[in-house]
Specification:
2% strand; mainly alpha; 463 residues; transport; Growth Hormone, Chain: A; MFS; MFS_trans_sf; MFS_Transporters; globular; 2 domains; MFS transporter
């Protein structure tokens, strides 16, 4: 169970929450792709707001969404799973409805719509990860999380392409896109709700074999070479693990997601004087690589500890940043193709990072505090995504060395911090007679056959 060597699509769908939930993810991603890249354009062209006002409203929505994350974490720790995912989608339905109802020049309604969209966008990743962690365990859970990311990126890409093709229709087309997005969110919420998955907090927090599936596959001696460094001493119960180093590193790692969208277009167009086709090609290649390689690379990396893989991702990303620095030095002409080639390495680093970071959080957190751990992780992710455009543009103003050298140095420092952070060893188990014993392979096999502390479609699994 520690190492996944084969990709079985049906098993992957089951581990991800089932067919209905997979459809919900696809519909939700398609709707998001239709509107999210053009929300600023909607405010400026349809509602006739100024670009600065529109940008401030969108930023406020992101910030308020982050502020709501502790409450989302507590709700998840009370057992919410499919309800939390559906709620994150329904909140965005309300945001889209306010967009459609807003008259031209009405800042307040647009800001409120951006607020609800921001809350839903920030709450969804933690709710989705908690749901997947409830129905799957060990390396199967890692593959399921990777599959969800690949599916979401595919939906976002298709939605963005459809939206781009329809932009020739002007403001009426943007309103139509918003309406379709709202319907997509509503349909996705209904599908997610129909899964009817809820965790049992009491079962998750009890230090009994019933709660073992989340911990046992990651702590047993026969899988220790692969997973022991990832596992908190209280994977069954106890206080939340300290993740300050990882959360701080994650803020730096997450900059890689904005490199294709912010840094590369800035460098290619303003410094290398390349055609706008080059940034578009880099973005499309990034999306295609993530969709096709996220699951295979995550499965390939399952033979190593998640912490080591996360550190490796930092090294690959830092190497790609230095590659961008060298490619920029080539100047106009060969510079643009070189940047495009190096972007493939950066995307590989992004894939390795995305396949290990959330998986490491779910492995570290005790089941009863999984929601709060994921909420803290999403806080660091959201903060990094919010500040990275400003940091990237500020560094770029001081030249390529400041931009790429700064990103490479910070990422290498973060990778070394992640690699050097050792989690305590797995706890001993207490036998009925009061003696201690370490988990063994038999316990692992029993745990894999036992219940997961969750109810699917209202039924409690048999022990």
């Amino acid at each position: 169970m520690a190492t996944t060597t084969k990709i079985r699509p049906r098993a992957l769908v089951r581990a991800s929450g089932g067919p209905r939930y997979a459809v919900a993810l696809a519909v939700d991603a398609l709707g998001t792709g239709l509107l999210r890249p053009f929300l600023l354009l909607y405010g400026v062209t349809v509602l006739r707001l100024s670009a600065p006002v529109t940008g401030v409203a969108m930023t406020t929505g992101v910030v308020v969404g982050l502020v709501c994350m502790p409450a989302v974490g507590r709700w998840l720790d009370r057992g919410a799973r499919s309800a939390a995912v559906a709620a994150s989608m329904l909140v965005r339905v309300l945001g889209v409805a306010l967009l459609l109802a807003a008259p031209a020049g009405h800042v307040t309604l647009f800001a409120t719509a951006a607020l609800f969209l921001g809350i839903g966008n920030q709450a969804w990743p933690a709710a989705h990860a908690a749901l997947v962690a409830t129905v799957s365990h060990g390396r199967e859970r890692d593959a399921a999380l990777a599959g969800g990311r690949a599916l979401r990126n595919a939906g976002l890409g298709v939605g963005a392409l459809l939206a781009t093709a329809s932009l020739a229709g002007g403001t009426s087309a943007l309103r139509a896109l918003a309406a379709v997005t709202g319907l997509a969110y509503l349909a996705a919420a209904a599908l997610a709700w129909s899964v009817r998955l809820r965790a049992h907090p009491a079962a998750a927090s009890a230090p009994a074999p019933d709660a073992a599936p989340d911990a046992a596959p990651d702590t047993a001696p026969d899988t220790a070479p692969d997973t022991a460094p990832d596992t908190a001493p209280d994977a069954v119960g106890g206080p939340a693990p300290r993740m300050r180093v990882m959360l701080a590193a994650n803020v730096v790692y997450i900059f890689c997601l904005n490199v294709p969208e912010v840094a590369l277009p800035l460098i290619l167009v303003t410094r290398l004087h390349a055609s706008p086709v080059w940034p578009a090609a880099v973005f499309v290649a990034n999306t295609v690589l993530v969709v096709t390689l996220q699951v295979p690379v995550t499965v390939l990396m399952s033979r190593f500890s998640r912490r080591a893989v996360l550190a490796l991702a930092g090294v690959v990303l830092a190497a790609s940043y230095l590659g961008f620095l060298a490619a920029t030095a080539l100047g106009p002409g060969w510079g643009a193709p070189a940047v495009a080639a190096v972007s493939v390495v950066c995307t590989v680093g992004e894939i390795v990072y995305a396949g290990s970071a959330t998986a490491l959080v779910t492995a570290l957190a005790p089941a009863r505090l999984l929601g709060r751990a994921l909420a803290r992780f999403q806080l660091s992710t959201g903060f990094g995504l919010a500040v990275s455009p400003a940091v990237i543009t500020a560094l770029a103003a001081h030249g390529p060395i400041a931009l790429w050298g700064g990103l490479a140095g910070a990422t290498l420092l973060s990778a070394s911090a992640v690699a050097g952070r050792r989690a305590p060893t797995a706890p001993s188990l207490i036998n009925v007679n009061g003696t201690q014993s370490q988990p063994d392979g038999q316990l692992v096999r029993t745990a894999l056959r036992g219940e997961s502390g969750c109810a699917l479609d209202g039924r409690t699994p048999r022990s």
